[in-house]
Amino acid sequence: MQTCQHLIRFLLFAISGTAALAEPTGTLFIVGGGDISAEVRAEFFRLAGGKERAKIVVIPTASEFADDPKEDESYLAEWRKLAPVSVERLHTRDREIADDPKFVAPLADATAVWISGGDQNRLVEAYRGTLVEEQLHELLARGGEVGGTSAGAAVMSDLMIQGGDQQATTGPGLALLKGIVIDQHFIARGRITRLRGVLADYPRQAGLGIDEGTAAVVSGNSLIVKGKSTVTLFWPRESPKSGEERVLKAGDELDLATVRLRVSR
Question: What is the pTM of this model?
Fold first, then answer.
C-alpha cells in the first residue's frame, strides 16, 4: 500500500513539475557562516523593512556564550548600526520559558528574526515544538523574514544536519525550509561529501550547500544568491533530474519548483 501511494505521489510531481504544497509568503535569508559583508547585511535589512519598518529580533541561543549578559550587546551591535525601528535579543535554554506567551511577544511584532551561529543542536533543544518555533512560522506566513548564519542556517531545515565531519548525523530541525537539507561553511570546510551522504540516505530531499559569506535568499519558490562565494544545489535523487548538482554564484536565480519533491518520508 505504501509503495503504491509513493508511486502515485511521484507521478503527480512529475506531471505537474511544481511543488504540491504552497510555500510561505515570507523570506528565508540563509547565510553559510563566516564574515558577513556589509552588502549582504544591508540586503537582509532592506528585506526586513529598512529604517522605516525594520523590527529585528536576534536569537543568539546557538552560541555557548549566549547566557553571559556581558555578551548581549555583541549580538545586537551590527544591527543597531543600521538604525532599525527596534532590535532586541531573545534567548532562553528553558523550554517552559520558550512556551511563555510573554517571552515570545517580541516575535509577534517583528518584521525579521536573525538567528546567530554556534551549535544548531542548542536551538533545537530550546525551541523545537515550542511557541518560539510556532512564531517563526507565523512570521513567515505573514510575509516577514527569518535569517540566520552557520547554525542559524542549518536549523532551518526540516531534516537538519546535527554535526559530523565527512559523515553527518541528522535529526529534526525547525522546518522553516521543507524538503531541502542545508549545509553551511560548504566550500571552506569541504562538506560536499557530507551533504552527498545525507542525500543518499534521504533520496527525497534536495540539498543546499552554502559557502561562507554567501546567502541563499528564498522567497516562495524563488532562490537568489547574494555574497562572495557560491551555493551548490542538489536535486533529489527521486526526482526527474535524479541527483543533479548545480553551482550558483552571486546574482544567480533559480525556480525551486523544479527542485522540491513533495513526497512523505
Answer: 0.89
